[in-house]
Amino acid sequence: xxxxxxxxxxxxxxxxxxxxxxxxxxxxxxxxxxxxxxxxxxxxxxxxxxxxxxxxxxxxxxxxxxxxxxxxxxxxxxxxxxxxxxxxxxxxxxxxxxxxxxxxxxxxxxxxxxxxxxxxxxxxxxxxxxxxxxxxxxxxxxxxxxxxxxxxxxxxxxxxxxxxxxxxxxxxxxxxxxxxxxxxxxxxxxxxxxxxxxxxxxxxxxxxxxxxxxxxxxxxxxxxxxxxxxxxxxxxxxxxxxxxxxxxxxxxxxxxxxxxxxxxxxxxxxxxxxxxxxxxxxxxxxxxxxxxxxxxxxxxxxxxxxxxxxxxxxx
Length: 315
Hints:
Layout: H1 12-23, H2 29-48, H3 58-70, H4 75-96, H5 121-128, H6 136-151, H7 155-159, E1 166-167, E2 172-176, E3 182-186, H8 189-198, H9 204-207, H10 232-245, H11 254-267, H12 272-279, H13 284-287, H14 289-305, H15 307-314
Antiparallel strand pairs: 1-2, 2-3
Helix pairs in contact: 1-2, 2-4, 3-4, 6-8, 6-11, 11-14
């Protein structure tokens, strides 16, 4: 039986494809890790059947998708894996200038549209008030929570912030989003105040090491307890820890704060185009999912409050 391919054993075509994604398409390191993981699984599948990449047919691709479904992978995970496989084969066809794409006739699984699970504004207030104390870690955690909610930032954008990206006088920060696209994000007075408290002698300076382990750490806005740049996992842990303190538990993730920022702005009359720009969505259709949330909420309020709606339910 063929030996399954590991990540270190991936053949030249896939390594060339990953290099092309990084150099020509500017994909982020996190995206490249996801592609490598999905394609390693795909090539393990092909290797078990002794099918070389150059001779893959639509049958193998369909069987691979079926195997993912049989393993009870979520529709979104199956769709993501197929995107990686499809992108690889299209790259190989373009590079060779001949042959056909075996993924052309393979349909992507339907992914149910999930509505963002925004928190209530009272829950947000409880979370932002959950950080107690005035030591360096408390100042950092308060600034993280306020900034995530104020700017609707992705967790990756938050931990990538450098000191030069923050302008507290103007109340803005510069975030680097997907595809290395930069945008200017306004933040409110509470977030500015929390950041100012963190970027002080009693905050960030108290965690600054005598010698930086990496040059990039010296520019990081958010530091861990050892004085290095805070990781995604570290920031995630900050959110979860304080969420647990106010009883939010699994309802809270960093991305839920982003969802909540968008939903609450639309609830209070913000223009959808402005929310799109704030969140860094390339397409307005991505932002429009939040309008469905607010419409559903409006319907519930209407049904509960309008006298004619109440009468029609009693009949």
